[in-house]
Amino acid sequence: MLNHVATVSRPFPVRDDATAWVEAWPDARILRVNGRGQVRLVDGQLMLEPATDFYAEPPVHAVLLGVCGSVHEWAVRDESLADNSTTGTVVELGDLRSHGAILDAADTDRYVTAMALLTWQDDAPFCVKDGAPATITSGGWMRVCTACGREEYPRTDPAIICLVHDGADRVLLARQANWPARNFSTLAGFVEAGESLESCVAREVAEEVGLTVSDVVYVGSQPWPFPRSLMLGFHATADPRDELVFSDGEIGEAVWCTRAEVREALAAGDWTSSTEVHMLLPGAASIARRMLEAWARAGD
């Protein structure tokens, strides 16, 4: 299953119930995120700390991630994070790229929600209509213009990611021009205004490698908060005999690989590995790797 399924409850009415926030604050937990998107982790889990250790009441800049059991979970931007050890516990800093492979589903949901909301808050302090300051409301899920009352909500940018194959035993892997020489992945790009997802797949593949695709099939999705994307995964078929043309300048290299070669690359590790191999694939936190793993297994 490629879809990301949320595991932290998001009860909508609680977002506008400031009384409930205050009543639940003594038991609330808080996730602190620095400006680089890093959080504190202990033994591979997000470190949610007692909210009252930092604030006497819910601060206006905090975002309500959701409710786990009866515990309210919040997130704040905090530049004071440190990867130190306290009381015998090893604390490290990390993000989705560095530690996503070991985070469980609940922690992944917490992290991507926190990043999406905090990044939106950082980027949208003013009303897009008249430029007046916009105040944070609804537990961090809405801003309201102080002049005209316009309501603004967190933005999500849809992007497609496509595993292009030949319908048999070969798949196309590509490397962006600015990536290390061994780092390869599937093709991806943002959905343009007025464009369907299927049209975006066809356009992006044509622009990036010059191929015409058919049989476009949706396979799953993943929130990717860098800065606020929703990755929508597809498979599509192309003819490996067609010439590869890198017309938009994003792709520096692309190669057709057999299923056996993909399995070998998956076994070698990922982009963070120091193994001396000619090709490395994305890490386990990405939908790209899960799509490639599923395609590689399909040949068994």
From TrEMBL:
Pfam families: NUDIX, Zn_ribbon_NUD. It comes from the Bacteria. Residues 154-279 form the Nudix hydrolase domain. Its cofactor is Zn(2+); Mg(2+). Its EC number is 3.6.1.22. GO terms for biological process: NAD+ catabolic process; NADP+ catabolic process. It catalyses: a 5'-end NAD(+)-phospho-ribonucleoside in mRNA + H2O = a 5'-end phospho-adenosine-phospho-ribonucleoside in mRNA + beta-nicotinamide D-ribonucleotide + 2 H(+). The keyword Hydrolase applies. Keywords: Hydrolase, Magnesium, Manganese, Metal-binding, NAD. One of its GO terms (molecular function) is NADH pyrophosphatase activity. This is NAD(+) diphosphatase.
